[in-house]
Amino acid sequence: MDHRLLEIIACPVCNGKLYYSQDKQELICKVDNLAFPFKENIPVLLETEARTLDPEESFS
Ligand SMILES: [Zn+2]
């Protein structure tokens, strides 16, 4: 994942900062508890494609 990309992309729901989860290959919004997937190395920043994080998942 290109880290420069992380600086320019934002959560489509709250417009906040996204965190990259290397484990799961997802982009995490802690505000909305959403995880956005990658498709062919392109982040899919669509609320409809995101999954809701389980409460026990933490990305501190
Ligand atoms: Zn958000």
UniProtKB/TrEMBL annotation:
Pfam families: Trm112p. Gene3D superfamilies: 2.20.25.10. InterPro entries: Trm112-like. GO terms for cellular component: cytosol. PANTHER family: PROTEIN PREY, MITOCHONDRIAL, ZGC:162634. HAMAP family: UPF0434 (MF_01187). Belongs to the UPF0434 family. This is UPF0434 protein EH105704_01_04650. It comes from Atlantibacter hermannii NBRC 105704. The gene is ycaR.
